[in-house]
Automatic annotation (TrEMBL):
<keyword id="KW-0479">Metal-binding</keyword>
<dbReference type="InterPro" id="IPR029068">
    <property type="entry name" value="Glyas_Bleomycin-R_OHBP_Dase"/>
</dbReference>
<dbReference type="GO" id="GO:0046872">
    <property type="term" value="F:metal ion binding"/>
</dbReference>
<dbReference type="InterPro" id="IPR037523">
    <property type="entry name" value="VOC_core"/>
</dbReference>
<dbReference type="InterPro" id="IPR037478">
    <property type="entry name" value="YwkD-like_dom"/>
</dbReference>
<protein>
    <submittedName>
        <fullName>Glyoxylase I family protein</fullName>
    </submittedName>
</protein>
<feature type="domain" description="VOC">
    <location>
        <begin position="5"/>
        <end position="128"/>
    </location>
</feature>
<dbReference type="Pfam" id="PF00903">
    <property type="entry name" value="Glyoxalase"/>
</dbReference>
<dbReference type="InterPro" id="IPR004360">
    <property type="entry name" value="Glyas_Fos-R_dOase_dom"/>
</dbReference>
<dbReference type="InterPro" id="IPR051332">
    <property type="entry name" value="Fosfomycin_Res_Enzymes"/>
</dbReference>
Length: 128
């Protein structure tokens, strides 16, 4: 048996409309489904990634904040492949998103950088 690929990544946000706008309008992800679960007072938004994977965006009443970053146990960051890190950085900056300086991966020689979603979740851009 062998794992084939990541099916989805689930993210819990603190402000659903703000995060929905960020992931759809800024990052350009397509909405596959949006459901409100009344018994949990929670939204679940399924977003399509270009490679067939998905992001699931959840809202819950009063979720606890992320404990520390970036070296806490658990998920460190979510990385996206882009054709040009520099071009995507310019796009994000034009949308008012703060982005760290571009670095070069010492092992691959490829450029990468980090920025945050509305809840401070570290997101990486990696040149493919």
């Amino acid at each position: 048996m062998q794992l084939q690929r990541i099916h989805h990544v689930a993210i819990i946000c603190s402000d659903y409309p703000v995060s929905k706008r960020f992931y759809t309008d800024v990052l350009g992800l397509k909405v596959l489904a949006e459901n409100y679960r009344q018994e949990r007072d929670s939204y679940k938004l399924d977003l399509a990634l270009p490679d067939g994977g998905q992001l699931e965006l959840f809202s819950f009443p009063n979720p606890p904040e992320r404990q520390s970053r970036p070296e806490a146990q658990g998920l460190r960051h979510l990385a996206f492949t882009v054709k040009s890190v520099g071009d995507y950085v310019n796009y994000l900056v034009g949308k008012g998103i703060e982005v760290e300086p571009i670095r070069i991966d010492e092992f691959t020689g490829k450029p990468y950088t980090f920025f945050n979603d509305p809840d401070g979740l570290p997101l990486e851009l990696y040149q493919g």
